[in-house]
């Protein structure tokens, strides 16, 4: 069964870099899925797509976050990661990863992890 799990620090100071990792079980991030996404939800707001890394390793980003966002993958660990630099309290949110299957009209989601930006 496919499972995704976000991990990383729950508290980040302003101006620092937020780093999260998504560990994928039950499928290969190179052969099972064509898109690996990061999405966030600030408190009281809707979901915001941050970016994606495609099956060939090519990243694409939300233009509003592009200058601060980096998504990468580690195929040997079946993981992909998010780095968001120069964070402010407005970056406080629940952060989710998901993966889109090649053969099924299905997107698998992690449970989300709370990240708070505060000094």
Any overview of this molecule?
There is one protein chain. By secondary structure, this protein is an all-beta fold. Helices cover 0% and strands 53% of the residues. The chain contains no helices and eleven strands. It has strands at 3-7, 11-12, 18-25, 33-41, 48-54, 59-61, 69-74, 79-84, 93-101, 107-109, 113-117. The strands form two sheets. Strands 2, 4, 5, 6, 9, 10 and 11 form a seven-stranded mixed beta sheet that branches. It has a four-stranded antiparallel beta sheet with strand order 1-3-8-7, with no helix packed on it. Strand 7 and strand 8 (79-84) form a beta hairpin. The protein is globular, with a radius of gyration of 14 Å. The protein starts with a strand and ends with a strand. The relative contact order is 0.31.
Helix content: under 10%
Instruction: Evaluate the radius of gyration.
Output: 14 Å
- End-to-end Cα distance: 39 Å
Give the strand tally: 11
Features:
seven-stranded mixed β-sheet, single chain, mainly beta, 119 residues, globular, four-stranded antiparallel β-sheet, 53% strand
Give a summary of the structure in a few sentences.
It contains no helices and eleven strands. With 119 residues, the chain is mainly beta.
Write the layout of secondary structure elements.
Layout: E1 3-7, E2 11-12, E3 18-25, E4 33-41, E5 48-54, E6 59-61, E7 69-74, E8 79-84, E9 93-101, E10 107-109, E11 113-117
Parallel strand pairs: 2-11
Antiparallel strand pairs: 1-3, 3-8, 4-5, 4-9, 5-6, 7-8, 9-10, 9-11
């Amino acid at each position: 069964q496919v499972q995704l799990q976000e991990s990383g620090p729950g508290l980040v100071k302003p101006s620092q870099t937020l780093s999260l990792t998504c560990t994928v079980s039950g499928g290969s991030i190179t052969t099972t899925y064509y898109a690996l996404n990061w999405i966030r939800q600030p408190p009281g707001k809707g979901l915001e797509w941050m970016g994606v890394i495609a099956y060939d390793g090519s990243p694409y980003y939300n233009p509003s976050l592009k200058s601060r966002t980096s998504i990468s993958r580690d195929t040997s660990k079946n993981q992909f990661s998010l780095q968001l630099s120069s964070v402010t309290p407005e970056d406080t949110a629940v952060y989710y990863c998901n993966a889109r299957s090649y053969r099924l009209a299905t997107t698998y989601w992690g449970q989300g992890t709370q990240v708070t930006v505060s000094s």
